[in-house]
Amino acid sequence: MPFDLEPLRDSAGAPAVGDRIATDSFIYKLIKADLQGESQLLETEKVQRELARFVQNEWKEIAIGKTLTFERAMVIPCKDLQNGEISIPHYQDGEEVLNFRSPFLNSNGLCVSTNKIVEDILGPDGQPLAGAIAVSDETSDRIYNRLNEQIKSVLSEAQSKNIQLEGIENYLDKNIGKLETKDKIEFTNKFNEYISELRSAGYELEILPQESEQERQARDYDGE
Q: What's residue 56's pLDDT?
């Protein structure tokens, strides 16, 4: 049944679309009620447009720091940090830190990293550098190379324990940087299956990410 949301009114009889907040609240209530019924409203063009507009506005306000406020700092690459680690001197060691590169473009660049205090963040006087933090510059290629060496060092032992690793030789000593995106995704998924088998057997190995935090945030080090 065709309808238009604009003329609809809430239970108090007041217009439901006076401003964006009122509209968002009304849309939320409308969708919530619909989900408890036949869930037909989500299929309508009008509701889909309103949802798209809401998400777009939310991303915009986060990107410009209106919804959430964050500390800002210059980033320094650090070889002592692995993917998933960050170094902020005034945070506790081991603390999880939500971080992204400004402007915040999409959710893929939003990372939760573990704080680790390293010397690179200290100046010649031994004091933390003002306005600077250290981050990992590991790429997925480098992470693969590290995991590749770790796996090779335990492979004979693991195979002697009858761990299911058939075909793993086809995934070692490869240059994954030359793979097309689709092939790299498939390669990574299969490689992680082997890693999961090894982890289940007690070997301490990390999962190979499709993209590292360095790649997700497209970090550069020109002072921005």
A: 82
Long-range contacts formed by 148-156: CB under 8 A, 24+ apart: 148/172, 148/173, 148/174, 150/205, 151/194, 151/195, 151/198, 151/205, 154/198, 154/203
The pTM for the full model equals 0.66
Can you give the chain as a three-state secondary structure string? CCCCCCCCECCCCCECCCCHHHHHHHHHHHHHHHHCCCCCHHHCHHHHHHHHHHHHHHHHHHHCCCCCCCCCCEEEECCCCCCCEEECCCCCCCCEEEECCCCCCCHHHCEEEEECCCHHHECCCCCECCCEEEECCCCHHHHHHHHHHHHHHHHHHHHHCCCCCCCHHHHCCCCHHHCCHHHHHHHHHHHHHHHHHHHHCCCCCCCCCCCCHHHHCCCCCCCC
Whether the predicted pLDDT of 132 surpasses 70: yes
User: Mean pLDDT of all residues in the chain?
Assistant: 83
> Counting Cβ atoms within 10 Å, is residue 168 exposed (0-12), middle (13-18) or buried (19+)?
buried
Q: Which amino acid is at 6?
A: E
Inter-residue contact 22 to 6 (CB < 8 Å): no
What does the pLDDT read at residue 4? Answer: 33
Extents of the domains making up the chain: 1-67, 74-137, 140-215
